[in-house]
Design brief:
The protein is mainly β and 539 residues long. It has a single domain, classed as TonB-dependent receptor, beta-barrel domain (Maltoporin, Chain A), CATH 2.40.170.20. It is built from three helices and 27 strands. The strands form three sheets. It has a 22-stranded antiparallel β-barrel. A two-stranded antiparallel ribbon has the order 21-22. Strands 25-26 form a two-stranded antiparallel ribbon. Strand 11 and strand 12 form a beta hairpin. The longest helix has 14 residues.
Length: 539
């Protein structure tokens, strides 16, 4: 073991033996353009089943012009992506090329531009640049328009002594408009209903870039963001994360993470949420089973809570069928950023607070020849679940309202490649909400079905895709003050990409063929049928 790794190993072991004192901390659910997997000292057993991510990929560029549908089945701490009339998922840069560019234009008026470039020496450093702009203006409805710009730089340096340093810096400009009014009876200048979120992000991480002799992985990092909007509201967040993992016999894992999370929201008044987390767990892998035992110790405003973090899984029929069950829980911070990521039409002075939840679940997963699957059912108890109602002081915007809620849920994922070049993907999420005080879980969907068929042919030059999105009408309170449901979503979209030459390709997307104008948020219809096409380049 070299000197640097010895130092880190001794420092971390000594740190874990020292008494821990909770400090106030704030939450940071930050968005990222690209996920880079850190080096892990050891792998879990080969018979462990890792299913592919659920549809659609949140942070990859889409080849389609769609609604931004929540990309996964509903989770209590729901972190679905922002729902906007049109959205694109990012394309990954091909492995054999350093750069990727995409330029397109759509109807309604919708320019799209993307650039991604990555370079470096894999053994010494990596540097990446990502830029994206997407906007649309649906002129049939006054002020139904949006604009989104995302710029980011990230890099990783691998030192010869075995440690590595990673950093990133970024800026996002997200502009929406409060068009939820009858434009035949009312009219507003654009400046009066425009909302713009400007977010600056900064992050850094120190970790072992190589396997240590003692099989100890370590990391120490931070993430920071500063957010402001058009209405003099602002929020800052600092998240500090320290962790160490010790591997035994290349398969058993002992991990301890310590997180401090500081959030300050300020408008005419100041609100703070400071959370502290201590999260130890041990995972044991047997020949045909896995057991994880751990806990999440949390502190907020001198209120201490302990949540379980346990799971057991057993191979019933090898990799074809595995049964699992577990219990989990944690704090989830409803910061201004988290709330407006979910509902961009929020008031600029919401009440921010923690939600805490317990999740008890069980299910099966496995691989049947050409099919990977996972089915999970569970019960969640959520204190202060955030739901949304039209603001009593501003009919164009929404307020976050909280209630303790029980949720019985079922979710499943399927991925299949029955023949070469053909991929079938599907996810389903069903949630039964039982609020303590409200009649309904306002504006939270109870049913989501996402499916895709992807076919690649002509030596991978032609890629065809069809997507289906179904969601129930969400509950809301109508003008008569009664509980009601908005119309549901049925969206069928088709797309094609063709790599015309080694470096140049074309794409075309026809979306929402049913011309569904559903309202995801009350009085806010989404785009109907829309088209996007353009060219791609790799270099």
């Amino acid at each position: 073991m070299n000197t640097i790794n010895k130092f880190f190993a001794l420092f971390i072991l000594a740190f874990l033996c020292t008494p821990l004192f909770a400090q106030p901390g704030d939450d940071l659910p930050s968005e990222e353009v690209e996920i880079i997997k850190d080096f892990e000292a050891a792998l879990e057993e080969s018979n462990r089943l890792d299913l592919k991510p659920e549809l659609p990929d949140v942070d990859s560029a889409s080849r389609s012009l769609l609604y931004t549908i929540p990309s996964k089945t509903i989770s209590v701490e729901y972190l679905p992506p922002k729902i906007r009339p049109i959205a694109m998922r990012r394309d990954r840069v091909p492995d054999t090329y350093k750069g990727y560019a995409k330029l397109g234009y759509g109807i309604p008026s919708s320019p799209y531009a993307e650039l991604s470039y990555h370079t470096g020496d894999p053994e010494r450093y990596e540097i990446g640049l990502n830029a994206l702009h997407h906007s649309a203006n649906f002129k049939e409805v006054e002020n139904q328009r949006f604009s989104f710009t995302d710029l980011g730089i990230d890099g990783t340096y691998y030192n010869e002594e075995g440690f590595a340093v990673k950093g990133d810096i970024g800026f996002k400009m997200d502009q929406v408009h409060f068009y939820g009014y009858d434009d035949e009876e009312q009219t507003y200048e654009r400046d009066r209903v425009r909302q713009q979120f400007n977010t600056f992000t900064l992050g850094g991480k120190l970790f072992n870039g190589e396997r240590t002799v003692g099989d100890i992985n370590y990391h120490a990092g931070f993430d920071f963001y500063s957010l402001s909007d058009n209405y003099a509201s602002g929020e800052t967040n600092l998240d500090i994360d320290l962790g160490v993992t010790k591997w035994f016999n290349d398969q058993h894992e002992l991990t301890v993470n310590i997180v401090t999370d500081f959030t300050t929201f300020e408008d005419t008044a100041k609100q703070k949420i400071n959370n502290f987390y201590l999260m130890p767990h041990f995972t044991f892998h047997g020949d045909a089973f896995k057991v994880k035992v751990g806990a999440n110790f949390t502190s907020n405003d001198d209120i201490f809570k302990v949540f379980p973090n346990v799971e057991a899984a057993v191979n019933v029929v090898g990799n074809k069928l595995m049964a699992f069950a577990g219990a989990d829980g944690n704090l989830y911070k409803n910061s201004f950023k988290a709330l407006t990521d979910y509902n961009p039409f929020l008031v600029s002075r919401p009440e921010i607070r923690n939600s805490s939840y317990y999740d008890f679940y069980g299910g099966i997963r496995g691989n049947l020849s050409v099919v990977d699957y996972k089915v999970q059912a569970g019960f969640k108890r959520v204190d202060d679940l955030a739901t949304f109602l039209t603001s009593p002081t501003d009919s164009l915007r929404f307020a976050a309202v909280y209630d303790t809620t029980d949720i019985v849920y079922l979710k499943g994922t399927l991925n299949s490649s029955p023949v070469k070049g053909l991929e079938l993907i599907g996810t389903v999420g069903i949630n039964n909400y039982s609020p303590n005080n409200f009649d309904k879980a306002w504006h939270l969907p109870a049913l989501e079905i996402n499916a895709a068929v992807i076919y690649t042919t002509l030596e991978d030059k032609l890629r065809l895709r069809g997507d289906l999105f179904i969601e129930n009408g969400v509950p809301f309170i109508n003008d008569a003050g009664e509980a009601d449901n908005l119309n549901g979503l049925f969206d069928l979209s088709l797309g094609a990409e063709y790599q015309a030459t080694k470096n140049v390709g074309i794409f075309f997307q026809l979306n929402n063929l049913a011309n569904n104008r559903r309202q995801r948020w009350s009085n806010y219809p989404t785009y109907g049928i829309n088209v996007l096409g353009g060219i791609t380049a790799r270099f």
